[in-house]
């Protein structure tokens, strides 16, 4: 088994943005964190795009990533994920190709469909067609990156000999990751030879899904390089297990009601569109699949129990030795290639977060080099 690579997962939630009355100060602070992570040996830096949502306020990701690219030198970075249905594909292809050029080939392209109905309602994008839109967007982006011009005749996009410049720095293009939870998403990723990412399911379920995806990928007989598997987990490190739990537990066990993502305006947007909220505040107006019901269960239990977080590997909390051991056990079970530590969660004070990152970088990372 090859060495597991380690990254930093950074989310710009309302709590993060509230750290300063000036957004520029917050962006500068997080870019400094990326620089420090690079110096400590983190190999990846990722954030996530959400639109008109309280989950993340990084709504113009390529502008932020360009600033980060010019402030760093070796760390690989990207969105995990871009919400593909909200993007004009030619523009996203050209913007990310230029970002890859400006970083001299350090961009990782994370793609996904989006899961929050109210975001789609506010953008007037059909939620029920998000998968088909996403597949068209990705097909166009790959064509724009690798061919002289783009000609495409789809259900949602039509282009005739569009010249796209620049091409990416990486040959043939940046690595593509697809955020996958459903069997259909894993099958699509295997068919397209995309790497995959996961962040919600329990460890045994993730391990099973990754194993099935690898079998599908091998069956398609793609050429090397082989795609990779990516796992994000909440991580908090302190000097002792007891201190780590005391610092992390209040910011992990936070009930989903009321959920800031679905505040009054979010609920109103869905009600006006005739959509009802599901048990997890995400799935609406249809019978949930078994996979969706499992995600609903996870969201409920996370809001009730600290033990549920740690017993299922969704959070890794403890001293440096404990965190190192748990990460190794998790890798043996799941077999992922890249692990991203999500240190910023809940309303944890910034100095506590920075201490956790510093301890992780100095005392946990060396075990994985």
Topology:
Blueprint: E1 5-9, H1 14-17, H2 23-40, E2 44-47, H3 61-71, E3 76-83, H4 89-102, E4 107-112, H5 117-123, H6 130-146, E5 149-153, E6 158-163, E7 176-179, H7 183-192, E8 195-198, H8 203-220, E9 229-237, H9 241-252, H10 264-272, H11 290-302, H12 306-311, E10 315-318, H13 320-334, E11 338-342, H14 350-364
> Tally the helices: what do you get?
14
CATH class: Alpha Beta
Low-confidence stretches: 257-262, 279-284
Strand content: 15-25%
Give the overall pLDDT as a whole number: 91
> Based on helices, strands and strand pairing, what is the structural class?
alpha/beta
Secondary-structure element order, as H and E?
Answer: EHHEHEHEHHEEEHEHEHHHHEHEH
Count of domains: 1
Q: Using the 3D structure, state the CATH architecture.
A: Alpha-Beta Barrel
The major beta sheet can be summarized as: 8 strands, parallel, barrel
The shape, in one word, is: globular
Write the CATH fold name: TIM Barrel
What level of helicity do the residues show? Answer: 40-55%
- Order of strands side by side in the largest beta sheet? 1-2-3-4-7-8-9-11
Q: From the structure provided, what is the oligomeric state, counting identical versus distinct chains?
A: single chain
Beta strand count: 11
Cα-atom radius of gyration:
20 Å
Q: Could you tell me how far the N terminus lies from the C terminus, measured between alpha carbons in angstroms?
A: 14 Å
């Amino acid at each position: 088994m090859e060495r597991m690579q380690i990254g930093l997962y950074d989310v710009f939630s309302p709590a993060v943005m509230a750290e300063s009355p000036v957004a520029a100060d917050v962006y500068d602070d997080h870019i400094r964190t990326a620089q420090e992570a690079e110096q400590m040996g983190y190999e990846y830096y990722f954030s996530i795009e959400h639109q008109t949502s309280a989950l993340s306020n990084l709504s113009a990701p390529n502008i932020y990533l360009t600033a980060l690219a010019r402030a760093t030198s070796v760390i690989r970075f990207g969105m995990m994920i871009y919400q593909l249905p909200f993007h004009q594909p030619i523009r996203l292809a050209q913007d990310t190709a230029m970002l890859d050029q400006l970083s001299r080939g350090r961009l990782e392209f994370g793609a996904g469909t989006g899961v929050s109905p109210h975001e789609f309602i506010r953008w007037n994008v059909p939620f029920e067609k998000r998968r088909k839109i996403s597949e068209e967007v990705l097909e166009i982006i790959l064509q724009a990156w690798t061919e002289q011009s783009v000609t495409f005749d789809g259900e949602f996009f039509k282009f005739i000999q569009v010249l796209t410049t620049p091409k990416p720095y990486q040959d043939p293009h940046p690595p593509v990751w697809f955020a996958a939870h459903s069997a259909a998403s894993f099958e699509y990723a295997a068919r397209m030879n995309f790497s995959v990412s996961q962040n919600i399911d329990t460890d045994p379920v993730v391990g099973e899904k990754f194993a099935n995806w690898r079998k599908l990928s091998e069956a398609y007989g793609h050429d090397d390089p082989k795609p990779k598997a990516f796992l994000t987990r909440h991580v908090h490190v302190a000097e002792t297990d007891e201190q780590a739990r005391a610092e992390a537990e209040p910011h992990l066990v936070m009930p989903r009601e009321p959920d800031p993502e679905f505040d009054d305006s979010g609920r109103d947007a869905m009600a006006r569109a005739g959509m009802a909220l599901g048990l997890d505040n995400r799935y609406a107006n249809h019978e949930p699949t078994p996979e969706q019901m499992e995600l609903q269960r996870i969201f409920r239990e996370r809001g009730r129990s600290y033990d549920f977080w740690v017993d299922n590997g969704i959070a890794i909390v403890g001293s440096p030795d404990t965190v190192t051991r748990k990460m190794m056990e998790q890798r043996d079970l799941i077999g992922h290639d890249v692990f991203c530590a999500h240190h910023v969660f809940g309303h944890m004070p910034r100095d506590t977060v920075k201490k956790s990152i510093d301890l992780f970088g100095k005392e946990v990372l060396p075990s994985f080099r």
